[in-house]
Structure formats: C-alpha cells, structure tokens
Design brief:
alpha/beta; Rossmann fold; 2 domains; seven-stranded parallel beta sheet; about 15% strand; globular
Length: about 400
C-alpha cells in the first residue's frame, strides 16, 4: 500500500521517536469526549497469530435431545459440531441452570441459548415465556433471524421490539402472544409503561452482550425490566468481558450460576495498526478517497463520531464513485438492515458507522478498519479494530491524527 502518512513504520518497525509532538485531533479538542488518546497507541506492527488450536467438542448436535424437526433445522443451517460456547453451555441451559457465558462475538452464542430454549418451548401454551434483551436493534434483528431459521415447522413465534421501528406494529405483534420477545431495553421499557408488555409469565431471561448494554447506559432500564419478571426464572447472561459492574449485576440477577469461559484474547495485537496525518477534514477525505481506490481495500468499515458526520461522509464517498452505506441512530430499522445486508453481501465496499450503531454486529471478512474520527476511549478503539483480523485472517487499521509539529 502507498505511504499515506508521514509517520508510522520504517523498515517494518513502528517509528515511535518524536511521536509525543503529535497535536490533538484536528480542528477540535477532545474535551467532553473522554480521555485524550496518544497517537502512539494507534501504531502497532502486527504479530502473527499463534497457530489456532482447534476446539475438540464433547458433543455433536445430534447428541442433544432435540426434537426431530429442530434437529432437521439445525442440519439445514449446516451445523454439525458445536462451537466451544455451544458445547459447554447447552447442557447446563438444558438442565435449567443459570449460566454466565463469556464468549467473543461471532462464536455461535446465539444458537447456544436459542436451541435449548426452543426445545423447551415445544408444547408450552403460556405466552410469552422467553425474553431476550440485546443492546442494539441490529443484534436483536440477528437473533430474531436465527430464531426464525430454527423455528421452521415448530409453531413457535417471536416479536421483535426495538427503537427506530413502528411501535404500533410491535404492539400488534405482542397482542398475538408470541412465545419469545426479543428487544432492546429502551423500547421494552416504553412498551411496559404503555401496559402492552407484561412479563409475569417469563420463565427464561437472556441478557446478550451485557457489557455493551452497560456501556450504553441501559443499567436502570435493565433493572426495571428484570424486576418485572418472576424471581424463579432461568437467567442466561452473555458478555465478552466480566468487569466489576458486571459482577454486581450477576449477583443481583442470577442464582448459583455456572460460568462458561470460552473467550479468546483480543485480536488487536494481530491487526496491523498505523496513523495517517491530516490537518483538516478536507485533507482526511482526500487521503481516504485515495486509499479506498487501492485494490486491497476490499471491505472497509469506517468509523465516524456523529450521526450527521457519518451520513455526510458516506454521501461524499458515493459522489466520488464508491459504493458506500451508512449506519447510525437516525436511520430507521429497515434502512439499517438494508445497509448491513448490502455490506455483508459485498454489494457495498464501504460501511460508515458510529460506535453505537456498529456494536454487537458480526460482520465477517472486513479487510480494513479506518478511524476517520478518533474514538472517545481506547476501549472503543480496541472494539472498533477487532472487526478486522478475526481468526487466522489478517487485518489492518488506520487512524487519522493531527500532523506532528
């Protein structure tokens, strides 16, 4: 790739000398956006991933006591051998235990909780019986799509309750008494306040991407929703990390939980990371356009700071001849779904997104992550660049910074 920056790597090594003279972000300070992140933290020579150890599952899907129809649907999805989180968590979920599942995004945790739940729902007439909470509309939609794939021929139905979509339609879906409700905390809370969502018969509660829900400030909504469910429910708690605040929630919501730890290390050290110096938004756009013209930038996730800025950047890239989609909070649910589908299926080369909109999404084969605007925290940075270089694949990440003085 051509050298688009004046600092960075020399002779294959990160050049750190003089990095302390970098200025803050061009055109503005980081005041109000979290701690200033030194540009040296955006530079890393990738370490080759250690040889991947193939997980040896103790079960196959056919070993579990699922109905013939559910087994047929599992086979139709191409599932034969469970992933680590599926193999280890499903026996406990089937037994009715509370479970803490610590697993990376994209490791099959959705099926790990859906399959045992769906087997138990067969023949149950009390509805709704299951509540699944997720941090974002997109993750809720992904869970719902997987539920529908597994539910073919089982007479099991779901309702999805998320913001950015027509609430009247969601109310109609709830009044049909679905077996499973899948939703985001804000919309679930709204529906409860309207008296349309009643949780007195919930026997299984799933909190998916619990760490992200806390990051997004949903803790009070979650407490209110969980407080409306029966105390004798089964609770399944999935998270990528287990922070002190998550431990407090676990103690509050779960009873004698079994903890399953299948999380692997962050991929960030396996991602080639570098900075690109630019003194203005115009220069950033010019350099970004030049980069995206290169053949290696085949599937690129670009992060921006604001909803308006993300949409504007995507529109500018479209005018420059690139196939780009935007995903942010001002988009309706259907617009976001179309954009995500287009990017996943390689109809669009570029997806421009805000941090919140991109959380919880499993997007395979991202070749590059570009931070057009710097993240608010270093943790957000790690989460962003973790979208590339997954598994044994290589990945690259670039961050725009102000020029060195």
């Amino acid at each position: 790739m051509p050298n688009y920056h004046s600092g960075g790597h020399r002779n294959g090594r990160p050049q750190r000398a003089g990095v302390r003279s970098f200025s803050p972000k061009p055109g503005r300070s980081n005041k109000g956006r979290g701690a200033y992140i030194h540009p040296s933290k955006f530079i890393n020579k990738a370490v080759a991933p250690a040889e991947e150890v193939i997980y040896q599952a103790s079960h196959t899907f056919s070993d579990f006591a699922f109905s013939p129809t559910l087994k047929h649907n599992i086979e139709n999805k191409g599932y034969v051998t469970p992933s680590a989180i599926q193999d280890q968590a499903m026996p406990y979920i089937i037994d009715g235990k509370d479970v803490i599942g610590l697993a990376n995004t994209g490791t099959g945790k959705t099926a790990a909780f859906l399959l045992p739940i769906m087997e138990r729902l067969t023949g149950i007439t009390v509805k709704p019986t299951v509540l699944i909470m997720a941090p974002t509309r997109e993750l809720a939609q992904q869970i719902n799509e997987e539920f529908r794939d597994f539910a073919v021929g089982l007479s099991l139905f779901s309702a999805i309750c998320v913001g950015g979509a027509n609430i009247d339609r969601q109310i109609r879906d709830l009044r049909r008494r679905p077996n499973v409700i899948i939703g985001t905390p804000g919309r679930l809370k709204d529906l409860m306040k309207r008296g349309e969502l009643k949780l007195r018969d919930i026997s299984v509660l799933v909190l998916d991407e619990a760490d992200r829900m806390l990051d997004m400030g949903f803790i009070n909504d979650i407490r209110m929703i969980v407080g409306a469910t029966p105390a004798d429910r089964q609770t399944l708690f999935f998270s990528a990390t287990i922070t002190p605040s998550i431990r407090l929630l676990v103690q509050e919501f779960l009873k004698d939980p079994v903890e399953i730890q299948t999380r692997t290390a962050e991929t960030s050290e396996h991602v080639e990371q570098d900075v690109i110096e630019a003194s203005s938004k115009e220069e950033k756009l010019e350099k970004l356009t030049k980069m995206l013209s290169e053949e290696e930038f085949s599937k690129v996730l670009v992060f921006g700071e604001t909803k308006y800025g993300v949409q504007r950047l995507s529109d500018q890239l479209e005018k420059s001849g690139f196939k780009s989609v935007a995903i942010h909070g001002n988009k309706s649910q259907s617009q976001r779904q179309r954009a995500l589908k287009s990017f996943k299926q390689n109809e669009a080369q570029i997806m421009v997104a805000t941090d919140v909109a991109a959380r919880g999404l499993d997007i395979p084969n991202v070749s590059h992550v570009i931070n057009f605007d710097q993240p608010a925290t270093y943790e957000d940075y790690i989460h962003r660049i973790g979208r590339t270089g997954r598994g044994s694949a290589s990945g690259k990440a670039y961050t725009f910074v102000a020029p060195r003085r």
